[in-house]
Amino acid sequence: MTSSFLDKIREVSKQFFAFPMEEKQKYSREADSIEGYGNDMILSDHQTVDWTDRLYLTISPEDQRKIKFWPENPKDFRETLHEYTVKLQETNDFLLRAVARSLNLEESCFLDQYGEQPLVTARFNFYPPCPRPDRILGVKPHADASAVTFLLQDKEVEGLQFLKDNEWFRVPIIPHALLVNVGDQVEIMSNGIFKSPVHRVVTNTQRERNTLAVFCIPESDNEIKPADQLISETRPSLYKKVKDYVSIYFQYYQQGKRPIEAVKI
Ligand SMILES: O=C(O)CCC(=O)C(=O)O
Ligand SMILES: [Fe+2]
């Protein structure tokens, strides 16, 4: 992907969030559904709400797209998103084959667990300036439910941080790079060799921030599990077999718990 193409995606997402509220609200999500434009979903009385506007869209399988939520403006939004995610799916496949090879496994052993019809979703994140960054997060600490996440960061404004050894580390801006994040499902499939890291987004008082996360997720009917070759007497299976991990995930996430704990043995 060329850097001008990455800039183009940033541009269309910025343009969308810059429209007046009436325009964006044409794509508003329904109260109990994640898909569409809106704020953080409220799933629990105990949750903290993230300081963010989002546009959440299903990309693949194509027959599951809800096109009524895909912005008509800017004019090239739909086409650009489609083109971007086609490329990302190729990147996802390439990457998972390489990861398998790096562990001396059959090349397709992770990809096979995606099933015939993997799910690809996109989350456009818009973080407005926030009066109380000392108390309010753009996204609360979480690890991703996906197998793999591709994040296109803002070119000018930082905000993402990863947790390691109880300390938060900031992610620098590399304008022409995508950040690839291992999600919980690769942690499970790799029997914990690849860890799904906890991350959060901090806010700032001065500048808005735009990012786009694309999540690659195994088909929900497909069972995922640690690859057989990664289980041995010395390294037993650390995770249960699981279907539709994303549903389990959401129940835990909004209560501030780590969903992967639910599938650990
Ligand atoms: O906006 C970011 O930098 C990260 C967003 C994120 O973690 C997510 O959408 O899962
Ligand atoms: Fe995330």
TrEMBL record:
Pfam families named in the record: 2OG-FeII_Oxy (PF03171), DIOX_N (PF14226)
Swiss-Prot/TrEMBL keywords: Iron, Metal-binding, Oxidoreductase, Vitamin C
Positions of the Fe2OG dioxygenase domain: 118-218
Record has Metal-binding as a keyword: yes
Domain of life from the UniProt record: Eukaryota
Molecular function via GO: L-ascorbic acid binding; metal ion binding; oxidoreductase activity
InterPro entries in the cross-refs: DIOX_N, IPNS-like_FE2OG_OXY, IPNS-like_sf, Oxoglu/Fe-dep_dioxygenase_dom, Plant_2OG-oxidoreductases
Gene3D superfamilies: B-lactam Antibiotic, Isopenicillin N Synthase, Chain (2.60.120.330)
PANTHER family: OXOGLUTARATE/IRON-DEPENDENT DIOXYGENASE (PTHR47991)
Family: Belongs to the iron/ascorbate-dependent oxidoreductase family.
The protein's name: Fe2OG dioxygenase domain-containing protein
Organism: Populus alba x Populus x berolinensis
